[in-house]
Each structure stands twice: as structure tokens, then as C-alpha cells.
What does this fold into?
Amino acid sequence: MIASFGGGSAPAQVAKRVPKAAASGDSILVIENIEVVYQHTVQVLRGLSLSVPSGQIVALLGSNGAGKTTTLKAISNLLPLEVGQLRAGTIRYLGERIDATAPHLLARHGIAHVREGRHVFEDLTVEENLIVAGNALNGRSEKPDLAMIYEYFPRLKDRRTQRSGYLSGGEQQMLAIGRALIGLPKLMLLDEPSLGLAPLVVQDIFKIVARINREQGVAMLLVEQNAMAALDIAHYGYIMEGGKIVIDGTTAKLAQDADVQRFYLGYSEGEGELASFRNVKHYKRRKRWLS
It folds into this structure.
């Protein structure tokens, strides 16, 4: 258990269904019935609940606009930067409420957020980016381990003196993950790590992510549009629609679910017909999932 995070009043609880996985006693992260509003009017999350077991990868899937990125921002408390607010529900990390904890304190306590778009410091070299990220270790006895990062990402070692703005998209994504890892997190939030990357690069990055999870024991909440790649490395998965969870289960279960196969994995429904998420009416999907 870590010291109490503290810091402000928490939103009121809302009595709604919580997936069974959220009640797991060994979960490093538990989200219960959270509601998020932007600009005081636009509701994005509607009673969302999920959990991340210690040492496991959990995939959070859904179409554009479902609320996946907002979920990660709620966890790392970045919502105020976009006039967003957690109106209800609770977020617990290692058993402690973190609803009102500053992002830099969350990073020091072991939550690393790899945001969509990489957000590397383009004018700094690769190694300078990693050294700056090591500030998350302030107050701890550990020191930044550059050798560990270069072992996972040899291409970063080759380019350690190069300015980050001149890296390829895949190399920048590796650097973003490396910056998160150098702070020795207990939980990593990964937002669309495959975005804009070639398939072979995505394959390499996902292999490294799985290896980091396996060797370092870092729990991960992985937001992805590439459902097949995400389910391939995750242990458990949630699918969002309209700001709430519509289906969850082990990745083996989800991979065999007819709706998941049709709407997210692109399996055809008949000869010559390729299933498309956009071609299916919203109410039909919800009726089948919630029946």
C-alpha cells in the first residue's frame, strides 16, 4: 500500500452495475461507475466500470468517440486541461482514491501515461528525453536505467544522440514507451500505440510491450483501434460504446464472440461480404449485446 494520495473532494457514488472483474481483490486499478462531462454539458462517460489486475494487460476497445481516451485522461487526471470533469464514481489505484490527485504525483507513485500522438520533446535528443522522464523517480531510491530501455529498444540506443523530432513515427513511439518505462511504473496507460504506423512496426512494438509486461510485471491498460493486435497480447478486454462498457471478458472469450468478430475483427458474414462496423446500425449492436 502506498501513502494516501489525498487532495480534494471526490465525486458522489452512483449505484450501477459493476462488471465482475472490477471486484477483483488483486486489481491494481479499479474504476467504478465514473461519469465524465466536458464543457459542463457534454457527457462522454456514463457509468463506466472496469479493472486492471496486477501484472496483466487489459485491452479497452471501441469505435472512435466511444470514450476510450477520456477514460485514460480521467485516470491520470488530465481532464481539467480540456475543461473536463469527473462528475461521479471512483477511481482507485492500489486501493487508494486518486480522483483528485495531481498528474505529477500519480507519475511518481507509478502511473505512466503514454498519450496518443507520442508527445516527445522534439528539440531534445533521445537520451535527453529519457533523462527528463527519469524525474518521475524523484523521492525514490531507484535511478534511471538507460541500459534497460536500450535493451528493449536497440534502435533508440543507435539514435541516442539524435534529436527526437527527426525520428520516424515508430521510433518516436518506442521513445514514448521508453520514457514511461524509465520511471519504473506499476501501471502503464497506452493510448493507440499503433496509430499511423506500418503493420511490421506495429508488430514489433506490440511484441516489446508484451515482453515488458512479462519481464517487468507492469500492468497495462491498452486503448487500441487495432483490435486484433490488442487481443493478441492482452489477458482481458472491455469493449466500449457510447461511454460505457457493453461487453467484457477474457481475450479468448472476446475473440470467439460473434459480435466482436463482426464489428471489430473484420470477419465476413457471408461469401464476398466483409463486415463493417460502420455499416451496422447502433441500436442493432446494442440490442444484441445487452439482450
Summary: The beta strands are 27-38, 42-53, 57-62, 84-93, 96-97, 111-114, 187-191, 219-224, 236-241, 244-250. The chain is about 30% helix and 25% strand.
